[in-house]
Specification:
The chain is an alpha/beta fold. Helices cover 36% and strands 21% of the residues. The protein contains 15 helices and 17 strands. Strand 10, helix 6 and strand 11 form a beta-alpha-beta unit. Helix 3 packs parallel to helix 4 and helix 12 crosses helix 13. The relative contact order is 0.16.
């Protein structure tokens, strides 16, 4: 018997298109080739027309494996987490009575220093990465620690589990505790270059393209000496394809301290810009307190913002004006920011992004008056925007939007099969989620108007769902997680 050359998924599709719109279509056929890329998508195919459609595409029964979704399921793009700290996950739920700088000193740096022990890294990183995959994160921007060997362990584990990721070794040679600091700028750069080379030596994915990318990671301006930043500038300048990630304007005390360290530079964003670290493939985490000139500069450099509302609430950092950034044309994605954020789930980040935008709206526009010249400023973010930020927006921030972030022909099949119904007894037993109520429909979606039904399913999933509602997680066409993965 011949091996199928194409896998065709048949069922409902939810797919982001713009910040304000998304597709919600029943009875779709999505063809995925052996390399894990999407060949074609056909919408609104009746059950009786499936075989005819496949024949029109030149596919015989022996060429195709058909995966048919059940009622209550839909396919959507996988989540793109643009900012999190893998070594901090064991601290989830810890230290939320502190603000950022104290929290780093009391809780975060002591935990991260333990990763000097490679055995400790090998013990804890597998379960950490599996948590992100189970939560539907198909692409994740991980900060590691400053330790070269343990960062290699993280890269190996992410690669072996099949997740797509950007992984960075932290650069930090000042204003850190003596037990957790790099010995010199030269040592920091040497280990960074070695880690970049190691990540790029990992075998590619099914499409012969890398799944794991190195990312230059100056922790933040406070932790990097001028000499180190100058060396990072040279490294970044020599390798324009190298991603960059760092923190910016998360906390007011952090902003104040940064300005004290760089009195001759106008603002925080200007520090990174003066060292050549602000560019198209730069990911700036938080951006709660950006000044107007900084917003203009970030847009001019085409850098992206990782909005981390859960962490910003927990550590009392503030509420980022994401609506303003969107109206100004900035690229924005979402980040879980473990362990400032208490969950590895992008669903939690989406919920808190909704709440954060509501807080901004209540503070500045309590009667919900449309803003002059803006769709998003001082308004609650709509469902379509939350979906976009968690998927396509994140892909844009990572400069991977030609490959991932939405389900389109030519893109990678990085996707989730979501199940919001528990009316099937076997599903209810294996995948119970008491927070997500489902009233069984007497008619299938295909006999109803699909848009409102699927919109309701998406909304339930975003606001009440969790990993128990994620049946399958695919990266580059390969099943790597989800409840069905373990059954």
């Amino acid at each position: 018997m011949s091996t199928p050359v194409v896998t065709v998924y048949y069922g409902s599709l939810i797919n982001p298109t713009t910040l304000t719109t998304y597709e919600a279509t029943a009875n779709c056929l999505i063809a995925v080739n052996a390399q894990g890329n999407i060949d074609w998508i056909v919408h609104d195919v009746k059950d009786s027309s499936v075989q005819e459609t496949l024949l029109q595409k030149g596919l015989l029964d022996t060429d195709v494996e058909i995966v048919e979704l059940r009622e209550g399921q839909f396919i959507m793009p996988g989540f793109v987490d643009t900012h999190t700290h893998a070594p901090q996950v064991p601290n989830l739920g810890t230290g939320y009575q502190s603000e950022l700088l104290d929290w780093l000193e009391k809780f975060t740096f002591p935990l991260e220093s333990k990763f000097q022990d490679v055995g400790f890294a090998k013990e804890v990183y597998p379960s950490i990465v599996k948590k992100f995959i189970a939560s539907g994160t198909t692409t994740c921007c991980y900060y590691g620690t400053l330790h070269f060997e343990s960062n290699k362990v993280l890269a190996d584990i992410v690669h072996s589990l099949g997740q797509r990721a950007l992984i960075g070794k932290c650069n930090m040679d000042r204003h850190c505790p003596p037990y957790y600091i790099e010995s010199s700028p030269n040592s920091s750069i040497s280990n960074t270059q070695a880690f970049i080379s190691y990540v790029r030596s990992l075998p590619p994915g099914p499409s012969n393209e890398p799944l794991i990318y190195p990312v230059l990671t100056p922790r933040f301006a406070i932790s990097c000496s001028n000499e180190l930043l100058s060396s990072l500038k040279s490294l970044a300048h020599s390798d324009t394809q190298l991603h960059i990630q760092t923190h910016i304007a998360e906390n007011l005390k952090e902003v104040e301290f940064t300005k004290e360290l760089y009195p001759d530079i106008e603002h925080y964003a200007g520090v990174y810009d003066s060292y050549g670290l602000l560019r198209t493939n730069t990911i700036l985490a938080h951006a709660v307190w950006l000044e107007e000139k900084e917003i203009d500069l970030v847009k001019q450099r085409k850098a992206g913002i990782s909005h981390c509302p859960t962490s910003n609430f927990n550590l009392r950092s503030g509420v980022a004006p994401i609506g303003k950034y969107l109206d100004r044309g900035l690229k924005v994605g979402l980040g879980t920011d473990a362990s400032g954020g208490f969950s590895p789930s992008m669903l939690v980040a989406m919920r808190n992004a909704s709440i954060a935008s509501t807080v901004v709206a209540l503070q500045n526009n309590p009667i919900n008056t449309p803003a002059d010249g803006g769709k998003f400023i001082n308004r609650q973010l709509p469902l379509a925007t939350l979906l976009y930020l968690a998927t396509k927006g994140g892909a844009e921030v990572c400069v991977l939007d030609k490959q991932i972030g939405s389900l389109e022909p030519g893109k990678s099949f990085d996707a989730l099969i979501v199940d919001v119904h528990t009316s099937d007894s076997s599903t209810a037993t294996k995948n119970p989620n008491p927070a997500l109520w489902s009233i069984p429909d007497t008619s299938p979606i295909s006999s109803l108007s699909p848009q409102p039904v699927l919109e309701g399913m998406l909304e339930k999933f975003i606001f009440c769902g969790d990993d128990r509602n994620i049946s399958a997680v695919y990266v580059q066409g390969k099943l790597i997680g989800g409840t069905s993965y373990y059954t």
